[in-house]
Fold:
Amino acid sequence: MEKTRKSRKRLRSAQELNRVVAEFYLEGHAAKAEGRPVGWMPPMNGVIEVFYAMDLQPVFPENWSPVCAAFGLAPRHFEVSAGLGYSRDLCGYLRNIFGYIHGPMNEPDMPLGGLPEPDLIISAFGGCIPAMKILHGLERRFTRAKVFTAELPQVGFEDIQDHHIEYAVSEMQRLIDWLTETTGRKMDYDRLKDVVRLSDRACELWDEIMTYRRFVPTPISAAELGVMFVMVTRQGTQVAVDFLTGLRDEVRQRAEEGIGMIEEEKIRLFWDNIPLWYNMGLFNYFEKYGGVVVAETYSAAWSLRLDPDRPLESLARKSLVSYPLVSCTSIRKRKDMVLQACRDYRIDGALLHANKSCVPITLGQMDIKRALETELDIPSVVIDADHMDDQNFSSAQFQTRADAFMEMLLAKKGLAY
Ligand code: SF4
Structure:
């Protein structure tokens, strides 16, 4: 098996996704050319809706990293960041983006045109420590960009109280006032409600798409997870709602007609942690055993229902939660979520990606492994790898573990290979 490989996609929507991705990056470059302010920010917080409502252009350096991994650019960026002294133990998103901005950023012929330089940097709106440090590093590189630093507490998903929301609302309002003063653009609060409505609709569609994965055979697998791009970059837009409506229709039709991802689905798998962005083809590896990855932790991270009639409160809550049920939560809550997903999606076996460069999502995996075995009788296997750096992934070791695991799962179900 190769170290780096694209996944085999079977949905029509995968073609449509290529257009949506290209248009997002084109839009960023067009904004720069037109003088529409471009702001770099972490994903999955309420800033994206504020930007779309104020006709500002959001850019997500963290999301650029999977694109770099998919295009094979990340190893070069890692060399640059290593030369700057960033340890290989740090998050791969952070090392990739620092290597990119201090390396080939302004070279011609970057895939998708690369990223437009920021006029604004929105820093520290929740998330994990590396996510915040990425923004701090950007401030030092793009010294002409105006910087807004939010002060949000790190509160566990399940511990958020009213006073946290009230405080986060005041931070959202401070952001809007700062954007108005810095860019001269005023917030239209009716438009903000519309944007929040679109964002909520995207999450509703996303949740519906995920429920079709409970069907046997599943109509969509982890090999198609690139569709998550829309949830990361386009929340609050009609583009996201249109794309997800098309995807929902396609997935629903496949579910109703019993069309699976492979000819005979025998083993249903769960993937914990972030995928290997440089090797999404790994999700197809299990198919020779009749195995399909039908659910993941990461896909649950991008959906949070919002109330369009209370836009600021909704966005404040979203900013506090950041990545629901993935990194900003207790190990107990995360374990409960994995167990629930394994029940809901009728999982036979779990693949636990021990992600060298994402400690927040890897923490607690041994507790999850034990609970899967004792409470649900679901076997699991640990896959040592890294979501960004293929140097931390051994395809030979993966193959050995995956083969033994799949043979054991087939035997457990009394099925032949
Ligand atoms: S959650 Fe993990 S992958 Fe995401 S920024 Fe934090 S350390 Fe990196």
About this structure: The two ends are 19 Å apart (CA to CA). Residues 192-412 form one domain.
